Amino acid sequence: MLKTDVVVIGAGAVGCAIARELSKYKINVTVVDKNEDVGGDASKSNSAIIHTGYDAAPGTLESQLVVAANPMYDEITKDLDVPFKRIGAILPAITDEQFEKLPEIKEKAFRNHVYDVEFKTKEELLEMEPELNPEVKGGLFIPRESIIDPFILVQAMAENANANGVEFMLGTKVTDIKTENGKIKSVVTTAGEIETKYVINSAGLYCDEIAEMVGKAEYKVVARKGQFYILDNKTSCQVNYIVLPIPTKVTKGKLMCPTIHGNMLVGPTAEDQESKVDKSTSTEGLESIATDVRNLVPNVNLRDTITQYSGLRPNRNPEGLNFDMYDDLEGYINLSGVRSTGLTLSVAMGKYVVQQMMYHGANLEFKDNFISKRKGIIKFCEQPVEVQDALIKENPLYGNVICRCETITEAEIVQAINRPIGAKSVDAVKRRVRAGMGRCQGGFCGPKVIEILARELNCAPEDINKNNPGSYMVTGRSRV
Ligand SMILES: Cc1cc2nc3c(=O)[nH]c(=O)nc-3n(C[C@H](O)[C@H](O)[C@H](O)COP(=O)(O)OP(=O)(O)OC[C@H]3O[C@@H](n4cnc5c(N)ncnc54)[C@H](O)[C@@H]3O)c2cc1C
Fold first, then answer.
1. How far apart are CA 260 and CA 397, in angstroms?
2. Which ranges in the chain are annotated with CATH 3.50.50.60?
3. Which among 38, 105, 331, 463 is least surrounded, fewest beta carbons within 10 Å?
């Protein structure tokens, strides 16, 4: 039987942040995920905003963690080489009724200790954001709302945790948890049983099913779908800031913002559903985004859509972010309701979990050889010509552009595959180096990426999946 000290269930943002934090200490950690790649479910399909917590419910754990997390991103994104920009958000009031709500929103931000929210006049807002609805009455500016590459963030935390000794068991589903005398004993997985002292349930949408395995299912997960449009990076109408609507109790609302790579993101919806797997988009959902966002940015050009997608928020009933440890079940830590701000708060949750383990008796000693930094894959297209020339001389694969839309070279794709916790599928390559993220969405480079994956992984092209097993892309030889 495999043996470890801590099993973290889930390699999404939260699980990987916890694993990285634990890797600073002398303790054995294994992360188990049913997916073939790190990156989670919700963690790879969100708005990619690092929030300030200005609109969280004051006094809650969620508010505490989001507010604590936001300032951590300056350092963590430098240390782990993650694309991140503090572009700021604006919250325009379009109607008189919305205008009247602004003081209340600013006061709520203050109660959340977000003190840098400023009122902006109509003129100031239109100067900052010329594409804003000219009917705007005034609004708020939230300077530290930021954008990030959510895929790279999670990969970077996982890679860095791995460099510090954390084991990753991917494509491995947890099917049961065994306990003995009120203590955690082992985790049963599709790849065998793992003896462990601690289990951390960071399974997102499935955290209720994991909790059920230890008789702690005091809640049910209700997936809350969010649909999005992604617009081409050359679309005619662009915004400089995260343009947010006045939030409601259910959702932060439908926004428009630049992504870290220069596309425009428009959405999301907030639709509760029974299914934890239905990630379809719908005409109704997409039309509701169009209507709401046109109210903020009338010229938004949805004809420049290059793709649509949806993500499922792991919402919980009863609602709210919960952290639980139990007197009658030593070694079990349950996280649930990591809903709309989980990408942001993940880094603070990592620290929170470790501190709570210590309060509950874990004897965690710092390692003196923790590696705090991780280097990402060099983006060829962002280098000056002299550097590009030198790279091609050093490695001719830099001279072969595979993804024309995003100018991604073969050398970058090969590195994505061969790094520790490397890419094994077409989507995993896409999320590491952006091959297939451009206007043609992989129409041109898809077959070439399959070929490179098959060559590097030493298998047949028919064995290469889009993402998880069974999602194969070719059934035999084609003309390419
Ligand atoms: C539409 C939308 C917009 C959002 N916008 C933002 C935003 O702008 N900013 C922000 O901070 N947050 C945002 N969020 C929220 C954020 O994405 C989530 O809160 C966060 O990603 C949750 O991370 P997680 O690691 O808990 O879950 P996940 O990313 O879902 O990871 C859970 C992992 O557990 C694994 N797992 C589950 N069951 C098992 C099992 N039995 N065995 C093994 N593995 C298992 C899954 O495979 C998965 O990889 C948004 C979410 C959505 C859907």
1. 26
2. 2-45+150-219+319-359
3. 463
State in Å: Cα 349 to ligand 1 middle. Answer: 13
Share of the chain above pLDDT 90, in %: 96
Residues 9 and 202 sit within 8 Å (Cβ to Cβ)? yes
Does residue 360 carry a catalytic annotation? no
Task: Classify domain 86-146+222-314 at the CATH superfamily level.
Answer: D-Amino Acid Oxidase, subunit A, domain 2 (3.30.9.10)
Top CATH class, 380-463: mainly alpha
Q: Which of 65, 206, 212 to mutate to test the pocket of ligand 1 (most atoms within 8 A of CB)?
A: 206
Residues paired with 147 in a beta bridge: 49, 85
| pLDDT for the residue numbered 247 | 78
Give CATH superfamily name and number for 2-45+150-219+319-359: FAD/NAD(P)-binding domain (3.50.50.60)
pLDDT at 400 over 60: yes
Residue in the structure block whose two tokens are 């462990």: 196
Mean pLDDT of the 151-162 span: 98
Which residues of the chain are in CATH 1.10.10 domains? 380-463
Determine the residue of 207, 343, 467 to mutate for testing ligand 1's pocket, defined as the one with the most ligand atoms within 8 A of the Cβ atom.
343
- Return the amino acid letter for 373: K
Q: What is the mean pLDDT of residues 310-314?
A: 97
CA of 341 to the centre of ligand 1 (A): 10
Q: How confident is the model at residue 477 (pLDDT cuts 50, 70, 90)?
A: confident
pLDDT surpassing 70 at residue 250: no
Which atom of ligand 1 lies closest to the CA of 40? Answer: 49
Instruction: Identify the three-state secondary structure at position 197.
Output: coil
Residue 480 has pLDDT above 60, yes or no: no
Which residue's CA is the closest to the ligand 1 atom numbered 12?
341
The beta-strand segments (E) located in 5-60 are: 6-9, 29-32, 49-50
Q: Which atom of ligand 1 is nearest to the CA of 312?
A: 53
Q: Report residue 479's pLDDT band, with 50, 70 and 90 as the boundaries.
A: low
- Residues 99, 360: contact at Cβ < 8 Å? no
The residues lining ligand 1, judged by C-beta closer than 6 Å to any ligand atom, are 9-15, 32-35, 40-43, 45-49, 51, 173-174, 202-206, 210, 226, 268, 311-314, 338-344
Write the residue with the smallest CA distance to atom 37 of ligand 1: 203
Q: Which two tokens stand for residue 47?
A: 């708005």
Q: Are strands 167-169 and 29-32 parallel, antiparallel or unpaired?
A: parallel
